């Protein structure tokens, strides 16, 4: 069964670009191995991440994140079994959104998703849009 978890968290410290790149690289490797798709957004010291995949893999990945010392105040905002992935086609899977052009690309993808009128997708879209509103 497929599952989606979306969480937000605060960074424990001011992450450097190099540190974010290391987080991204490790997350991408792990998620590729575990067939997890989604997005990871870091902005103003906060993370928003969507994880999608087989229930067991998503739960294990989220448990690792919960104990990762780079996070604090982790709030799981969506934890639901789904019939299909939402971000499977976005940049061929897992990505870190880190520039204004990538935010624009993400917005285009979210607008495309809105046309599907999928309830879980619409919740995720709203959350991601609210998270990135301050990005210019």
Give the N-to-C terminal Cα separation: 38 Å
Q: What is the tally of helical segments?
A: 4
The CATH class designation is Alpha Beta
Shape: globular
Task: Write down how many β-strands occur, each being a DSSP E stretch of 2 or more residues.
Answer: 5
If classified by CATH, what would the architecture be? 2-Layer Sandwich
CATH topological fold name? Alpha-Beta Plaits
What is the total domain count?
A: 1
Mean pLDDT: 79
Series of secondary-structure elements, N-terminal to C-terminal: EHEEHEEHH
Poorly predicted regions are none
Overview in brief:
This protein is of the alpha+beta class and 136 residues long.
Index terms:
alpha+beta, five-stranded mixed beta sheet, single chain, 136 residues, 30% strand, Alpha-Beta Plaits, 4 helices
Characterization of this structure:
With 136 residues, the chain is α+β, with helices and mostly antiparallel strands. The protein has a single domain, classed as Alpha-Beta Plaits (2-Layer Sandwich). 43% of the residues lie in helices and 30% in strands. It has four helices and five strands; from the N terminus they run E-H-E-E-H-E-E-H-H. The chain has helices spanning 17-33, 55-66, 100-114, 119-132, and strands spanning 2-11, 37-43, 46-54, 71-82, 95-97. Strands 4-1-3-2-5 form a five-stranded mixed β-sheet, sandwiched between helices. Strand 2 (37-43) and strand 3 (46-54) form a beta hairpin. The longest helix is centred in the first third of the chain and has 17 residues, at 17-33.
